[in-house]
UniProtKB/TrEMBL annotation:
Keywords: FAD, Flavoprotein, Membrane, Oxidoreductase, Transmembrane, Transmembrane helix. It comes from the Eukaryota. It holds the Pfam family FAD_binding_3. The chain crosses the membrane at residues 6-25. Residues 8-50 form the FAD-binding domain. This is FAD-binding domain-containing protein.
Length: 318
């Protein structure tokens, strides 16, 4: 088994949570290595908007070196919920910023290890920054504590060889199927929640002027009989989330659509007959399954119906 260098901190999992911890520790001068099982740094769009609340905004203001010249996403003054008949149910005035999962991921990568993408160039490192490394294709399989050192075992998914890393602190940020959690709490089992979240995006330019006008008034739509609800992420006087590669141009922005619904776990069976535990991969949803959802949308406001009909990239997860 090949032994790697000793790090101050190793983080299992290189998604948003792992990157946030990595940036904070790097800025304190610690050497940080992120072990990420995905074999590429490129992330396909998840068709997912993301709201950045007060704590997230505080983090970006303090640690995002691009924040002053290029703030992430759009400011939102609040949100509203509507009854099925279109009448206002409640309002929330708490402000947040609205962006996309991929825009936030690439911004965090730029700050952590200087990764440059089509979302923009990376900032220059600060003099006091610790060493940072983002290792793709590395799946953490086990760990043990030996004296003052944590020994982390991972599998190199390219060579299929086992590697041993050493660190002073190990952070588990490896998601729902966490190896770290399985080692620490082996009796924990994941069970189906009983509902799924359908999501997708539509370019603003593809929507009719009538739907655009309707979206100015509609934020969240409660479905009849409490069977679920729909969220359309928009902004007052300015629609949608950043478009492809984070563009903020008006006609290139996207409307982000999320539909929460009670469903059996059979909905997580893909077009190849494989049953997934959490998320259907892109392009693997049964055509007839989404067609059935579009049919249900006939009973919703016209703007939501049009969004469902024009979504091309959709997914579902529990």
């Amino acid at each position: 088994m090949h032994s790697e260098k000793h790090w101050d901190v190793i983080i299992a999992g290189g998604s948003l949570a792992g990157l946030v911890y990595g940036i904070i520790l790097k800025r304190q001068g610690y050497s940080v290595c992120i072990l990420e099982r995905a074999e590429s740094s490129i992330r396909l769009s998840k068709a997912a908007g993301i709201g950045i609340a007060a704590n997230g905004q505080k983090f970006l203001e303090q640690y995002d070196l691009l924040h002053q010249t290029n703030p992430l996403g759009f400011p939102v003054s609040g949100s509203a919920n509507y009854h099925p008949n279109g009448k206002l149910k409640s309002q929330l005035t708490k402000s947040f910023r609205l962006s996309t999962w991929d825009a936030l991921y690439y911004r965090l990568r730029a700050n952590f290890d200087g990764y440059t993408s089509q979302f923009g160039k990376a900032p220059d490192a600060l003099p006091g920054d610790g060493e940072s490394f983002y290792a793709t294709g590395n799946r953490v399989t086990n760990f043990s504590v030996v004296g003052d050192t944590v020994e982390v075992i991972c599998e190199d998914l390219n060579s299929l060889k086992q590697r041993k890393h050493q660190c002073a602190m190990l952070i588990g940020a490896d998601g729902l199927n966490s190896t770290i959690k399985r080692v620490l709490v082996p009796q924990t089992k994941m069970t189906y929640s009983g509902y799924v979240m359908w999501r997708g995006t539509v370019p603003i330019s593809k929507l009719s002027s009538t739907s655009r006008s309707g979206l100015e008034r509609l934020r969240a739509f409660i479905l009849p009989n409490n069977i679920g609800y729909v969220v359309v992420l928009i902004l007052k006087n300015s629609y949608g989330i950043p478009g492809e590669w984070g563009t903020l141009e008006d006609e290139e922005r996207h409307v982000n659509f999320v539909w929460y619904e009670h469903a059996t776990d059979e909905i997580l069976v893909d077009s190849d007959g494989h049953k997934h535990r959490t998320t259907l991969p892109r392009g693997k949803m049964l055509t007839e399954r989404w067609a059935a959802q579009v049919e249900k949308a006939r009973y919703m406001p016209s703007a939501i119906r049009e969004i469902c009909e024009k979504i091309e990239d959709h997914s579902s997860r529990q």
